[in-house]
C-alpha cells in the first residue's frame, strides 16, 4: 500500500514524502505496521513571498519573434503549404503595353507587301487610263 503526505510548518517549508506500508507479524491479533519511505522526499522552502515588479515584468516578457501577428488572407492547407489571396485593382487590357508576337509581325509584313503590290497595279492602271485619254 502506498501513501503520500505533505506537511506545512510556520517556517514556510513544504515537506513531501512517499511512503509504503509494511505489515509484519506480531504476537497479538493486530499486525505490526511499519512505514517505509519509497521514492522521492522533498523539502521545499519559500524564500520570497512577493516578486519585485521589474523581475516579474522581465519573467513574463514574450520575445518579438514568438509573438504571432495577425495575418490577413493567408491560410495553410492539409499538406502545410501556405496559400494567400492577392487583391488587385481591375486592369484595362486595352491600355496595357503588349508585345507583338512574331506571327503577328509576319502577318502585318505580308499585308504591307500585298498593299504595295495593289498600289503598283493601281498606278499602272491609272497610267494606262491616262495614256488612253490623251
**Can you count the beta strands?**
6
The secondary-structure element order is EEEEHEEH
What is the chains' assembly state?
single chain
Low-confidence stretches: none
Helix content: 25-40%
Structural class, please?
alpha+beta
N-end to C-end Cα span: 139 Å
Mean pLDDT: 77
**Number of DSSP helical runs:** 2
Q: What gyration radius follows from the Cα positions, in whole Å?
A: 49 Å
Tell me the β content: 25-35%
Features:
26% strand, 2 helices, 4-stranded antiparallel beta sheet, 134 residues, 30% helix, alpha+beta, two-stranded antiparallel sheet
Written account of the structure:
By secondary structure, this protein is α+β, with helices and mostly antiparallel strands. 30% of the residues lie in helices and 26% in strands. Strands 1, 2, 3 and 4 form a 4-stranded antiparallel sheet that branches. It has a two-stranded antiparallel sheet with strand order 5-6. A hairpin with a 4-residue loop joins strand 1 and strand 2. The longest helix has 32 residues. It is rod-shaped, with a radius of gyration of 49 Å. The model has no long low-confidence stretch (mean pLDDT 77).
Topology summary:
Elements lengths: L1 E7 L4 E12 L7 E6 L4 E4 L7 H8 L13 E3 L5 E3 L17 H32 L1
Antiparallel strand pairs: 1-2, 2-3, 2-4, 5-6
Short characterization:
The chain contains two helices and six strands. It is α+β, with helices and mostly antiparallel strands and 134 residues long.
Amino acid at each position: 500500500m502506498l501513501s503520500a503526505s505533505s506537511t506545512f510548518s510556520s517556517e514556510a517549508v513544504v515537506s513531501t514524502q512517499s511512503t509504503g506500508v509494511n505489515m509484519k507479524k506480531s504476537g497479538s491479533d493486530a499486525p505490526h505496521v511499519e512505514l517505509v519511505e519509497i521514492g522521492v522526499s522533498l523539502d521545499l522552502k519559500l524564500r520570497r513571498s512577493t516578486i519585485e515588479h521589474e523581475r516579474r515584468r522581465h519573467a513574463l516578457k514574450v520575445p518579438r519573434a514568438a509573438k504571432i501577428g495577425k495575418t490577413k488572407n493567408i491560410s495553410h492547407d492539409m499538406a502545410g503549404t501556405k496559400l494567400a489571396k492577392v487583391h488587385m485593382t481591375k486592369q484595362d487590357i486595352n491600355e496595357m503595353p503588349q508585345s507583338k508576337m512574331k506571327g503577328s509581325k509576319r502577318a502585318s509584313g505580308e499585308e504591307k507587301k500585298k498593299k504595295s503590290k495593289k498600289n503598283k497595279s493601281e498606278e499602272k492602271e491609272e497610267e494606262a487610263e491616262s495614256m488612253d485619254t490623251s
